[in-house]
Amino acid sequence: MTESTPIDALTGSGDCYAGFPDIDQRFHVKLRAYVDLAMPLVFRRLGKTVPLVDMRRDGLYPIMYFMEFRGAPQPVAFSRPLRIDFEVRLRHYHPPPEGAPRGTPTSDRFLVDARFTLRGHAGTGRPDDIGPGEGEQDAEPNAHVGTGRVVQVITRPFAPPGQRQVTRLPDAYRRFTAHPWDEPYPSWEALTDVPERFSPPLGADLAPDESTWGVANTDINQHVNIVEYTSALENRQSRMLAATGLPLARHRSVTSRVLFLKPFFAGEPHRIAGTLRRCGPETLFFGGIYKRDQEPGENVRPGVLMRFEGEIEGE
Questions:
Q1: All domains of the chain, ordered by start, with CATH?
Q2: How many Å is the maximal CA-CA distance in the chain?
Q3: Among 32, 117, 127, 138, which is most buried by a count of CB atoms within 10 Å?
Q4: Minimal CA–CA distance to 47: which of 112, 116, 92?
Q5: One-letter-per-residue 3-state SS of 181-222
Q6: Phi first, then psi: what are they for 165, rounded to 5°?
């Protein structure tokens, strides 16, 4: 590919190793680990095509807006690499002529849409056997582990209010085909939809978790890192599962969707609240991270919103 060749989609693959923090006691890869496992490879490849460092000097940043991960109940071999296959497209959101739905942008946006698949070597799932299963020693990593999608909005986060939106394609992305955004835009309204089959909220009287973010929670974008948010919200889900008497050891988070609306910063106090619903073995958790002065509620929008869809295995 020459420097002038148009790019419809940037594709590639590579390997990574999951460490102790990335795999749970069932030898399943944790959803909270997907970002740190897959995205470094994606951005190294993207950085060879797009001058990301120069963009930052010009005040242009791809900022995380939406993530969606889906995991399979697949034990993996701890001692073998995971294979990542990815595809990155540039997308152009334009408000529909009839008007933007509530909660969606009213002006043009350019988004970096990265999707990936994780494959691994099937393991036994036994703590005394962390290697690959029988017949897997010399095989390719073909066991399906999960899929992910990460959507970033190109913006000027440190510009004055009113000047942060990027409505024209940056020169750095001129080689990319700007595919139209042809699906519902991720929004608070869409993410909080509750199917009728689910119960009313359980454990609604459980008090919010309160804390304060520190420098150790931040990254080079000068605000709290996204993995800190997802870990805190998953911990809140565990607290609610325990408080309502559901079996934590048999619960598995199948899908997570996260919407990043407003960042948090070091020294900022916050509170974490959520609702938990159930339909047979299925669970549905909504969790939000709020400013300390916000009172969590149905019509109060958090800075970060997570939707977890899970299941209780064996029911």
A1: 10-180 (3.10.129.10), 188-312 (3.10.129.10)
A2: 60
A3: 32
A4: 112
A5: CCCCCCCHHHHCCCCCCCCCCECCCCCCEEEECCHHHECCCC
A6: -75, 140
Hey, what are 136's tokens? 């897997």
Q: What is the DSSP letter of 44?
A: H
The label of the residue with tokens 């595919």 reads 179
Taking the CA atoms of residue 129, residue 242, residue 251 and residue 35 in that order, the dihedral angle to the nearest 10 degrees is: -80
Whole-number Å distance between alpha carbons of 194 and 64: 25
Task: Please state the pTM of the whole predicted model.
Answer: 0.91
Considering only CA atoms, which of 19, 126, 127 is closest in space to residue 82? 19
The answer to whether residues 132 and 122 touch, using CB atoms and an 8 Å cutoff, is yes
Under 8 Å between Cβ of 41 and 81: no
